[in-house]
Design brief:
Layout lengths: L1 H26 L11 H29 L12 H32 L15 H29 L9 E8 L2 E6 L35 E3 L2 E4 L4 E7 L4 E5 L4 E5 L5 E5 L5 H5 L2 H19 L12 E5 L11 E7 L1 H9 L4 H8 L1
Parallel strand pairs: 1-5, 4-10
Antiparallel strand pairs: 1-2, 2-3, 5-8, 6-7, 6-9, 9-10
Length: about 350
């Protein structure tokens, strides 16, 4: 309510200032009120164009300087470095083109402003100029597109080489569930029509499928570092998107079909926590939370940096809360963790 009242007051103040400006203009009897811009108006607008250009450049530089601390750390997956490099090259090209085109736009807007007695010189066409400004963007964009397609094809090469770990990510409003293939590393058959909440069959696994017996269903995703992981993704209700930003991975979870994504984690959770940028981020965040704790506010416990799985599609009113913790650990730690989990067969036996 306070925010609404503040915005209302600011709006009223802005209206009052605008009305006072109009009154001041009307009170200047000697001023001209022609509806056609004169040379002085054009000159002032030219200066304003330059001022706006400078403002745009300065605000861009300020944002990168001020808010770059919120960027993600270096990628924690094998394919992430190439993905980030492609993104960097794209942004460099965009900013170079933006800098040149905006500078020319504002410069010509000032240089060729309206002047009394001047007439515009019009060219019906200029084949050489049109060829230049057409062929250069075509070559640059074609290069980026081909590079992007090659990178995407490489990333999406989901295969069974190198003994990948098979994991299913099951999405539903508004939570995630992970399923591992167990000792045989093969996921049992499943269908939403076989979901039986009373018997704790929350993912609709086929109880008659022998491959499903040793499957492990959990609410926290554990991944061994250095081992390829093939993800199979399903959705129970609406369109979701499995987004793992630290691993530069994202794939839609579509009702009625299984989608796939694959990557290899290269940094454990403990290793990413030792990253200088991450240490600084945690320090800043916990300083804010300490202030909140001193005031007795909620959500003020000290924060520890973790990998996280998010939903990147607006899937409903609690979409913001749809997330799962990801722990990347050594192969030995992973094997000890998976051995301590209850299998689907054991869960079904306990529910009888």
């Amino acid at each position: 309510m306070t925010t609404v009242l503040t915005l209302a007051v600011l709006a009223l103040v802005a209206i009052a200032i605008w009305q006072m400006t109009k009154i001041f203009e009307l009170s200047q009897l000697k001023s001209e009120h022609a509806q056609i811009a004169n040379d002085e108006d054009n000159k002032n607008n030219g200066y304003l164009l330059f001022a706006f250009m400078v403002f745009t450049y300065l605000i861009t530089i300020f944002c990168f300087w001020k808010y770059s601390k919120f960027f993600l750390p270096d990628a924690s997956s094998a394919h992430g470095e190439e993905y980030d490099y492609l993104m960097l090259v794209s942004f460099v090209i965009i900013f170079i083109v933006q800098f040149i085109t905006q500078a020319l736009l504002h410069y010509f807007g000032y240089k060729y402003r309206g002047k009394k007695g001047n007439k515009a010189l019009f060219y019906a066409d200029n084949d050489r100029l049109e060829f230049i400004w057409t062929i250069i963007p075509v070559i640059v964009l074609a290069g980026l597109i081909l590079w992007g397609l090659y990178t995407w094809t490489t990333i999406m090469d989901v295969n069974d080489e190198d003994d990948p770990l098979i994991v299913e990510l099951y999405a539903q409003q508004f939570n995630w569930t992970a399923r591992y293939g167990g000792n045989d590393n093969v996921l049992g058959q499943a269908n939403v029509r076989m979901i039986d909440i009373d018997r704790a069959n929350v993912l609709g696994l086929d109880e008659g499928d022998s491959y499903a017996t040793d499957d492990v269903i959990v609410k926290e995703l554990h991944l061994p570092v250095g081992r390829k992981v093939n993800f199979k993704m399903r959705s129970q209700d609406v369109l979701h998107s499995a987004y793992m930003p630290h691993f530069r991975a994202q794939m839609n979870c579509v009702p009625g079909m299984t989608t796939e994504f694959s990557f290899t984690p290269i940094k454990t959770t403990e290793q990413i926590r030792q990253d200088p940028d991450v240490i600084d981020k945690v320090k800043r965040t916990n300083a804010i939370r300490a202030e909140r704790a001193a005031k007795g506010e909620d959500n003020s416990d000290p924060w520890e940096y973790d990998y996280i799985l998010l939903c990147n599609k607006i899937c409903g009113r609690s979409h913001y809360n749809m997330q799962m913790k990801i722990i990347v650990e050594t192969q030995e730690e992973y094997e000890a963790w998976i051995a301590s989990q209850q299998t689907f067969g054991q869960t079904m036996a306990a529910s009888e």
